[in-house]
């Protein structure tokens, strides 16, 4: 299976973000012919005011009912259908009652929704440069582990800050994950020190392929303050090697993955059989 991880630089303008995603996906498909394309975290509205985040959020159709969704949801569906790809929609703002959720939606080549996942771990931290992030002030937390079958692979879903919690990756592995997708908007300050280290560690621990599309560049908060994301979207193999990585700026990275290499890694080092603790 061929995977392209798309690297975007979104802001608070939802329409512009959708146009950017559409253009990058079209270019990646034309250049590399991937089977699966994945977008970064919260690409529909990054930064802006609380009101802008709520305005950009969408009420998702009832899962499995096939109803019509909002502008971003329908754009993702149409892009999957028109390019005949499986499209992992990174994550977008989901409006559920009076709460927002940071939610992944996956579409098959026929435009059918295959899965959705709400981010479990919320980013409430202060980075080394003193900038504070309080994701829980805007978003609620999910509570369900989600896997989906794509191209013969069992694929686990996670989002950004989930990366720092090995237990969610172990839970996905125990449920049969072979590939884990992690869209992100990692901060520049944390990304430069931890992004690749953590992604490689999660690949090594789970003996899974890892595909991580990321946001890059600057966006602006309600105060006008500029915030910077790290980018460096990448794909890592089950031995922890980075086999594809995007450069700085807009773009994508593509790699082919296969079960044979993963199975050899797991056979030669049967970690799940050796594991002693729950």
> Could you give a short account of the major beta sheet?
8 strands, mixed
Whole-number count of domains: 1
Written as H for each helix and E for each strand, in order along the chain, the element string is EHEHHEEEEEEEEEHEHEEEEEEHH
Helix/strand class: alpha/beta
CATH topology category name: Nitrilase/N-carbamoyl-D-aminoacid amidohydrolase
Number of strands: 18
The global form is globular
Task: Note poorly predicted spans.
Answer: none
Quick one: CATH class? Answer: Alpha Beta
Q: How far is the first residue's CA from the last residue's CA?
A: 32 Å
Quaternary state reads single chain
Q: Give Rg in angstroms.
A: 17 Å
β content, as a range?
Answer: 25-35%
Count helical runs. Answer: 7
Question: Care to describe what's here?
Answer:
With about 280 residues, the protein is an alpha/beta fold. The protein has a single domain (about 1-275), classed as Nitrilase/N-carbamoyl-D-aminoacid amidohydrolase (4-Layer Sandwich), CATH 3.60.110. About 30% of the residues lie in helices and about 30% in strands. It is built from seven helices and 18 strands. It has helices spanning about 15-30, 50-55, 70-85, 165-175, 190-205, 260-270, 270-275; strands at about 1-5, 35-40, 85-90, 90-95, 100-105, 115-120, 125, 130-135, 140, 145-150, 155, 180, 210, 215-220, 225-230, 235, 240-245, 250-255. The strands form four sheets. Strands 1, 2, 3, 4, 5, 6, 9 and 18 form an eight-stranded mixed beta sheet that branches. Strands 10-11-12-13-16-17 form a six-stranded mixed beta sheet, covered by helices on one side. Strand 10 and strand 11 form a beta hairpin. It is globular and about 50 Å long.
